[in-house]
Give the backbone structure.
Amino acid sequence: MPAPEPMPGYGLLLRRGYGSLAAAVRGCGDCGWELSRRTWAENAHLGWGEVLLCGLCALAWTALRRAAARRIFRPFGEWCNLQPKDAAKMPESAWKLLFYTFSWSYGTYLLFFTDYPFFYDPPSVFYDWKKGMDVPTDIAIAYLLQCSFYGHSIYATAYMDTWRKDSVVMLLHHVVTLTLIAFSYAFRYHNVGILVLFLHDVNDVQLEFTKLNVYFKHRGGVYHRLNDIISNIGCLTFSISWFWFRLYWFPLKVLYATCYSSLQSVPNIPFYFFFNALLLILTLMNIYWFLYIILFVAKVLMGQMQEVNDVREYDVEDSKKTTAAKKKEAGLQLPNALKEGMHLKNGLVKDKRL
């Protein structure tokens, strides 16, 4: 195999990436649905048994989360005497922290404790690619876990998680991610898929760990400084790592490999435009969420926020007061749903009981 290529800069990525995309467009004389159908039939390898197994695992994740929330997370929140609004959101973060810690640790094992060179030599993800090639068992396990979890996450975002200002974008993110995972497995682009998942999961670990410390800093009617300090440090490291992993390493390692290196190793590689379009959408969503991070930092610097909070979340207390005032003006009684502390979902109440 050739020696690892030095990681490019943004300028080289733009020049070579744009050049490769433009050349591929010019060379694609019969691009269209017919070519896509034929390419799928000739190159995709995805059995119904694999689809069924993934679907069953997605259902298992949902059932496991409900059971964990009911039997572990909620009782633990009550035992810690968390504030009601924190107790309602804590099970979601605890569940996600457990999964992403496991998935990122497994991705770290694959990339740094095996013979896979993908992190240090991203173009190698396409070396020796062949349609229908066998997927190594350790990578197949990672794919099954991630694909089923993101299938579960589409349902969970809509019906189980706290509804936030970016929840619609989050749903789109899960659909894009699930599509990338499934199609990259079918077309045997699993090597680059492991690299993509590794570069994204670390931020979810930091985010949920930080949020848990926010929830636990006021418990039992007492302020706990240690949790406050940890949440502040977690917010700082999360902001830095988001840029480093998703806006620095991801474009220069993944997009460079998929836009440019893929054509160098496999001319006329199948579904070239489709996969790169999805990865570019993922990049745009990473930039979108980074704007929330910048907004948070700006509010802290301007003194508009005195403590770490998720700026994506609706202020439920203010929303209930506003709704109550409107109902009072209209001469209507406040719905029981708001009295019981249900969360907002696009202006509507959403029951958070699992």
Remarks:
- The chain has a mean pLDDT of 87.
- The radius of gyration is 23 Å.
- The beta strands are 218-219, 222-223, 343-345, 348-350.
- The longest strand covers residues 343-345.
